[in-house]
Amino acid sequence: MSTPIPRPAQHIIKLKDDTDMQKHIQTFNGRYNRGNQLVYKVTHRWNPEFVNAYVGEFSAEVLQALKDHPEVDYISENSEIGDFDVIDQKDNNGNNNAGWGLSRINQAKPLDDTDSDDINFPYKYDGSLEAGVGVDIYILDKTNDDKDDDEGGHGTHVAGIAAGSRWGVAKAANLIAVKVSGLKHGILTRVCDQRPASNPK
């Protein structure tokens, strides 16, 4: 029985957001690859709109040059995972359909539109992963002792940001509503009730 040949080590090169990936790769390819000597080999590129990064096999010299290069944000060793399923969140008419918060955490650059009430921001995420699966998120919010309600709707709003099926960050997380009272100077002094949210999504 033949021994499997180990795959060469690969690294993910995350470029800074304002770096032109095509020009960066052309520069390194021209600088280090000579004739049949392939010491800078790019094996995969992501769409820069999703993540400005690529994967490749590099010699020790090239890898060190990449680490020192001002266009490189960071480098990590590649590992085998499933394929990405990039979902571009749109409404039924094909328009951007995310709130300011989702779009802001989705990118490093500040958004041009600063109106947090708008719901027409772009948002892309990896649909192959169930974000938040197996995670419990406790939503603590103030209410009255003798009422089983969400005072002012604030707790519901926060729950939607955390794990709402449409605009939530961790869409597959389990929400647990916690009713609290006795708040003094912002310090929680008593937890009145704890139960799974009746309609977490």
From TrEMBL:
<dbReference type="GO" id="GO:0005615">
    <property type="term" value="C:extracellular space"/>
</dbReference>
<dbReference type="InterPro" id="IPR037045">
    <property type="entry name" value="S8pro/Inhibitor_I9_sf"/>
</dbReference>
<dbReference type="InterPro" id="IPR036852">
    <property type="entry name" value="Peptidase_S8/S53_dom_sf"/>
</dbReference>
<feature type="domain" description="Peptidase S8/S53">
    <location>
        <begin position="141"/>
        <end position="183"/>
    </location>
</feature>
<protein>
    <recommendedName>
        <fullName>Peptidase S8/S53 domain-containing protein</fullName>
    </recommendedName>
</protein>
<keyword id="KW-0645">Protease</keyword>
<dbReference type="GO" id="GO:0006508">
    <property type="term" value="P:proteolysis"/>
</dbReference>
<dbReference type="Pfam" id="PF00082">
    <property type="entry name" value="Peptidase_S8"/>
</dbReference>
<keyword id="KW-0378">Hydrolase</keyword>
<dbReference type="InterPro" id="IPR000209">
    <property type="entry name" value="Peptidase_S8/S53_dom"/>
</dbReference>
<keyword id="KW-0720">Serine protease</keyword>
<comment type="similarity">
    <text>Belongs to the peptidase S8 family.</text>
</comment>
<dbReference type="InterPro" id="IPR010259">
    <property type="entry name" value="S8pro/Inhibitor_I9"/>
</dbReference>
<dbReference type="Pfam" id="PF05922">
    <property type="entry name" value="Inhibitor_I9"/>
</dbReference>
<feature type="domain" description="Inhibitor I9">
    <location>
        <begin position="11"/>
        <end position="80"/>
    </location>
</feature>
<dbReference type="GO" id="GO:0004252">
    <property type="term" value="F:serine-type endopeptidase activity"/>
</dbReference>
<dbReference type="InterPro" id="IPR050131">
    <property type="entry name" value="Peptidase_S8_subtilisin-like"/>
</dbReference>
<dbReference type="InterPro" id="IPR022398">
    <property type="entry name" value="Peptidase_S8_His-AS"/>
</dbReference>
